[in-house]
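Q: What residues go here?
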């Protein structure tokens, strides 16, 4: 593995799900924009925001479908994967480049949840 990134942060928006055909096979990708938190304890032992950064990320196939179904704007998530330098055209036709996280695993952190509902095992 060339690199390994683990971070947690809040989603800027609900994941954007896109389905497309690749070599006759349906592929699904969810694109996310995450503000990676950077909190540190101060001298009084309280956590303070020390800035952070925005990170574009994507996950694929079943993980993408679950992200689109379960995650929403403001959700606190933990993401793990590989960073990759990518280039793209923005909405105004300008060429852009930056690091993008190819998510291998994501999880919803419970700190902002109000409730959790489990499905029965027979639904798996």
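A:
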């Amino acid at each position: 593995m060339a690199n390994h990134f683990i971070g947690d942060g809040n989603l800027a928006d609900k994941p954007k799900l896109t389905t497309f055909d690749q070599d006759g096979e349906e592929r699904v990708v969810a694109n996310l924009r995450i503000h990676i938190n950077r909190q540190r304890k101060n001298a009084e032992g309280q956590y303070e925001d020390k800035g952070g950064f925005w990170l574009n990320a994507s996950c694929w196939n079943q993980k993408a479908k679950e992200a689109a179904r379960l995650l929403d704007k403001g959700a606190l998530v933990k993401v793990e994967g590989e960073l990759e330098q990518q280039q793209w055209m923005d909405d105004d036709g300008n060429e852009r480049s930056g690091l993008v996280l190819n998510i291998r695993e994501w999880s919803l952190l419970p700190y902002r949840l109000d409730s959790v509902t489990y499905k029965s095992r027979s639904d798996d």
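A: Context that may help when evaluating the design: The chain has a mean pLDDT of 91. The chain has one domain: 5-106.
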